[in-house]
Design goal:
alpha+beta, Deoxyribonuclease I, Chain A, six-stranded mixed beta sheet, 5 helices, 31% strand, globular
C-alpha cells in the first residue's frame, strides 16, 4: 500500500558543465530512480529532448500527451509507473496572468514558469489523486508569491472533485517562507520532512556535495491523510560526478 515519490531538479543541459555534463549525469540519475522504483517521478528544469532521454532509460512513462513543447523552454515533468498508476487526465498551468497561454510569464519572472498536473488512480488502493509538479522563479520572492497565487487559484478551480493533492517541485524558497505556509494552508497539505522532525539541509548543492550550504528548496507536500514511512535526500556521487546540482528527494508514503 506504499506510494513512492521522487522529485529532482535535473539541471538544464549545459555545455559548460564539464564532467557534470548531462550525458554523464543522465545514466546516474536513471540508476538512482530505477533502484528506488517510484510510482511517481517529478523533474524540473529539463527541456523536451533532455526529459525524453531520461525517460528512455526508465520503466516509467513521461506524461506529456497534453503538451505542445516549446523548444527553448524548461518544463517540470511528471512520469508514472503504469503498473501502479493509471493516468486519467493531465495539463499545464503557466504561472502568469494568462495561465492558459503557453510560454506566458508575468510578475517580473526571469523565465516562464509553470505547474504541470495529472489526475491519477493509484491502482493498488483504488484512490484518485491530483498530482502537481512546479518550478518557481529563482530570483524574487514577490514573483514566487504571485506565482503561487495563480497556482492555488487554478488548482482549486481544476479540482472540482476535491481530490487529495500531492504537490512536488523546486520552490526556490526556504521551508520557513510564506510560500510554503500558503501552500500548506490553501491546499490542505503537510510537509513529510517536518512530520518526521528531520534536521533542515540544503537540497541545491551546485555539484559541491557536502561542501555546499543553503536551504531545502525542493519539497514533496502531501495530504494529511498520509503517514510518512521515510523521506530523504539521495546524496551519492559516482566517482565525484553527481546526477544533478540538486539532491533527488525520495519519499515513501502510506495512504491511511
Amino acid at each position: 500500500m506504499q506510494l513512492k515519490i521522487v522529485t529532482s531538479n535535473i539541471r538544464y543541459e549545459n555545455s559548460h558543465d564539464g564532467i557534470h555534463s548531462w550525458n554523464n549525469r543522465c545514466p546516474l540519475l536513471q540508476n538512482i530512480i530505477t533502484e528506488f522504483l517510484p510510482d511517481i517521478l517529478g523533474t524540473q528544469e529539463g527541456r523536451e529532448l533532455q526529459t525524453r532521454k531520461l525517460a528512455s532509460g526508465l520503466s516509467l512513462t513521461l506524461v506529456d500527451s497534453h503538451r505542445s513543447w516549446i523548444a527553448d523552454r524548461m518544463y517540470p515533468c511528471l512520469y508514472i509507473n503504469n503498473e501502479r498508476i493509471k493516468l486519467k487526465s493531465s495539463g499545464d498551468i503557466w504561472l502568469s496572468e494568462t495561465p492558459k497561454i503557453d510560454g506566458s510569464f508575468s510578475f517580473k519572472s526571469t523565465f516562464p514558469r509553470l505547474c504541470t498536473w495529472m489526475q491519477i488512480t493509484h491502482l493498488i488502493h483504488n484512490q484518485d489523486y491530483l498530482v502537481l509538479n512546479t518550478h518557481l522563479d529563482h530570483v524574487l520572492e514577490e514573483t514566487r508569491i504571485e506565482q503561487v497565487k495563480v497556482l492555488i487559484k487554478e488548482v482549486q478551480s481544476l479540482n472540482d472533485k476535491n481530490l487529495p493533492i500531492i504537490l512536488l517541485g523546486d520552490f526556490n524558497d526556504s521551508p520557513k517562507s510564506q510560500i510554503r505556509q500558503t501552500l500548506l494552508q490553501n491546499l490542505n497539505l503537510i510537509d513529510p520532512w517536518i512530520e518526521l522532525a528531520l534536521p533542515e539541509e540544503t537540497t541545491h548543492h551546485g555539484f559541491l556535495g557536502k561542501k555546499s550550504k543553503g536551504e531545502r528548496i525542493d519539497w514533496i507536500l502531501v495530504p494529511e491523510s498520509f503517514s510518512v514511512e521515510s523521506i530523504y535526500l539521495e546524496k551519492k556521487d559516482f566517482n565525484q560526478i553527481y546526477p544533478s546540482d540538486h539532491y533527488p528527494l525520495l519519499a515513501t508514503l502510506i495512504p491511511r
